[in-house]
Amino acid sequence: MAPHGKELSEDLKKRIVALHKDGLGYKNIAKTLKLSCSTVAKTIQRFNMTGSIQNRPRHGRPKKLSARTQHHIQRLSLGNRHMSAASIAAEVVEGGSACQCSDHMPHTASNWSAWL
Question: Domains of the chain (ranges plus CATH)?
Answer without folding.
Answer: 10-50 (1.10.10), 67-115 (no CATH)
